[in-house]
Amino acid sequence: MTDLREFYLASIGPQIVALEVAVERLENGAAEAADSIGRVAHQLKGSGASYGFAEVTERAVEVLGSSGPDLSVATRSLIELLEELSVDAVAGLQTVVIVDDDPVMQMLVGKSIEAPGREILLASTLAEGRQQLTSQVDMLILDLFLPDGDGRKLLAELRQDPATAETLVIVLSAADSDVARAECLALGAEAVLGKPFEPDALNTLVDSLLRADSGRRRRSTAAFPGADESAESLSPRGPQSILLAEDDKLVAALIVDRLSRDGFTIVHRSDGEAALAEAKQNTPDLVVLDVKMPKMDGFEVLGHLRESQALSEVPVIFLSAMGGEQDVVRGFDLGANDYVLKPFSPSELAARVERLVHAS
């Protein structure tokens, strides 16, 4: 029975994607999308209890018995349950490679990110790292100063190989200068952290990136009924919009100038309440969010964003001088995708924006 349950969990990705596309179309006024939702819910109604997931059957029945606005709510609830089950299944397949020549650092990093079902592999050199990296590796945690060369060389090779181009990379190094950070991000690293590091902050970042990546891979590889209908909703929407919530006029001007040159459309608001109102009226592709702002701080704004169905998946980068472990962990716990400390490099911020926008 356990094998059947695992098989079922590994196979529900297409249903999740089909429901996500259909409910988005339904909420945009496409009444016929209700039929697509009904077909998937009917399948899940029968398969859920059969494979030992009575809760799937229960929520599918709720969807089939709903109409109008209630149908959207019930469908979102079903999607949430399926995603939780799917993430739990994917978690058992996570493989993380740590490349660092310091055995103590290998142990500290490994202990910080260990989790049930997460396999951790160790390498002390670039050569050993290359041997460990395959298409089955989900994440690389990489030092820059290694006995046989610079870690940036391995990062560049990783991104050039189609088999490993999508592997998540966190650079963890004592070389935490603005130049080194910008270079690593430009080469394709998801994040750059300095040594010494905060274990809880690293673990939260690793969990956040792996969960987001499992959803991205599920969406990009799933094939499902009605794929042609969804093509329009998944097609490029033109220039991406960035909502910038920042009360410091000089900092805002630097960010607007840098991101505008990269082709983004920037909407700037100077306080939390105005930023939240703007996001609700015009959904942005990404939010750059200061923590300390008038009227409503960034943590509160992010909380409201994650509570909104329409805004819950919008990538958010915190930009703050508050770099304590408690602040960083709180940011990721609330659902931030990244956390950039002031003072910062505009080029580094731009690289992080590019990575998140293109991954979402």
Task: Give an overview of the whole structure.
The chain is of the alpha/beta class and about 350 residues long. The chain has helices spanning about 1-10, 15-25, 35-50, 55-65, 70-90, 105-115, 125-130, 150-160, 180-185, 200-220, 225-235, 250-260, 270-280, 300-305, 325-335, 345-360, and strands spanning about 95-100, 120-125, 140, 145, 150, 170-175, 190-195, 240-245, 265-270, 285-290, 315-320, 340. The strands form three sheets. The chain has a five-stranded parallel β-sheet with strand order 2-1-3-6-7, with helices on both faces. The protein has a five-stranded parallel β-sheet with strand order 9-8-10-11-12, with helices on both faces. Helix 12 (about 250-260) links the parallel strand 8 (about 240-245) and strand 9 (about 265-270). Helix 9 packs parallel to helix 16 (about 345-360). The protein is globular and about 60 Å long. It starts with a helix and ends with a helix.
Structural class: alpha/beta
Averaged pLDDT: 82
Helix content: 55-70%
- Strand neighbour order, sheet with most strands: 2-1-3-6-7
Termini Cα gap: 35 Å
How many individual β-strands?
A: 12
Q: Report Rg.
A: 21 Å
Q: Which range does the strand content fall in?
A: 5-15%
Counting H and I runs of at least 4 residues, what is the number of helices?
Answer: 16
Order of H and E elements: HHHHHEHEHEEEHEHEHHEHEHEHEHEH
Task: Give the secondary structure arrangement, pairings included.
Elements: H1 2-11, H2 13-27, H3 33-50, H4 54-64, H5 69-91, E1 95-99, H6 103-113, E2 119-123, H7 126-132, E3 139-142, E4 145-146, E5 149-150, H8 151-160, E6 168-173, H9 178-187, E7 191-194, H10 199-221, H11 227-234, E8 241-245, H12 249-261, E9 265-269, H13 272-281, E10 286-290, H14 298-307, E11 316-320, H15 325-334, E12 338-341, H16 346-359
Parallel strand pairs: 1-2, 1-3, 3-6, 6-7, 8-9, 8-10, 10-11, 11-12
Antiparallel strand pairs: 4-5
